[in-house]
Design a protein that fits this description.
Strand content: 15-25%
Shape: globular
CATH class of the domain at 22-160 and 219-244: Alpha Beta
Number of helices: 9
CATH superfamily of the domain at 22-160 and 219-244: tRNA(His) guanylyltransferase (Thg1)
Order of helices and strands: HEHHEEHEEEHHHHEEH
CATH architecture of the domain at 22-160 and 219-244: 2-Layer Sandwich
Largest sheet: 6 strands, antiparallel
């Protein structure tokens, strides 16, 4: 058995280690953005379908549940923990307001909080349960990474546009793979897979716009309204996204 003094010394030492390991806090002229990506979700549920309606509905519901769980995790005068969220495919970005929150603006703490709660919410939404071997099936898990954005509307809007455009490119590539006569070799062993202009031209050439619209059904922008409810809007074009972003203040 150790002495109280030895315990106090160990406690003090590991508190210092923990403090030194924490990602630096961010100041009030910044906004924390947490991007969560599904772990092997695309391969299991999205890769070979234009759209997975069950997954999209579950994802939207889980994101809203996270919002309602945490929207009050800041002082009342700060209005809301979240500024907005944006999901497409199996990723979602939560952008927080730039005020001090109950988690003392610690990026690592907030990342683990969001990853854990979203993983739990999505597992429940998708019907995860223990099977006969007492192993948990249908676990839906997410990792998280922090991005420190300027408290600037232009930067925040551009970040959301970038995420939409990147996944738009990926979805066009999926549509071409699933619905065009091109072989995987013609898509993935050339520059086509990474070229947003050439992919768009290919969509036009093979008349695949309707299929692309179906693939984009998982693209959703979330923003709090005046009553602090989390409204969701499906985003099927860059013009629609730009229009929705106009209403969001920094």
């Amino acid at each position: 058995m150790i002495t109280q003094q030895e315990f106090i010394e160990l406690e003090g030492y590991f508190k210092k280690v923990e403090k030194a390991s924490i990602v630096p806090l961010y100041s009030n002229d910044k906004n924390l953005c947490v991007r969560l990506d599904g772990i092997k979700i695309s391969k299991k549920l999205l890769k070979d379908k234009l759209s997975n309606a069950k997954f999209n509905m579950a994802f939207t519901s889980a994101i809203k549940k996270i919002y309602y769980l945490l929207r009050n995790a800041t002082n009342k005068e700060n209005k809301n923990f979240f500024k907005l969220a944006f999901s497409i495919s199996d990723e979602v970005s939560f952008i927080l307001n730039n005020k001090t929150n109950y988690y003392k603006n610690k990026p690592l703490k907030i990342c683990t909080l969001l990853a854990g709660t979203l993983s739990s919410a999505m597992t429940i939404e998708m019907g995860g349960k223990a099977n006969h071997k007492n192993k948990f099936s249908k676990i839906i898990a997410f990792d998280a990474r922090p991005l420190i954005l300027k408290n600037d509307k232009h930067e925040i809007d551009n970040y959301i546009r970038f995420r939409w455009l990147q996944q738009y490119r990926n979805l066009m590539c999926k549509v071409v793979r699933l619905k065009s006569p091109l072989s995987e070799k013609e898509i993935y062993e050339t520059d086509l897979k990474d070229d947003i202009t050439e992919l768009s031209n290919t969509i036009e050439k093979y008349n695949l716009k309707t299929h692309l619209e179906t693939a984009l059904k998982g693209s959703v922008l979330f923003k709090p309204d005046k009553n602090r409810d989390f409204q969701s809007e499906q985003i099927t074009s860059l013009n629609k996204l730009n229009l929705e972003l106009k209403d969001i203040d920094v």
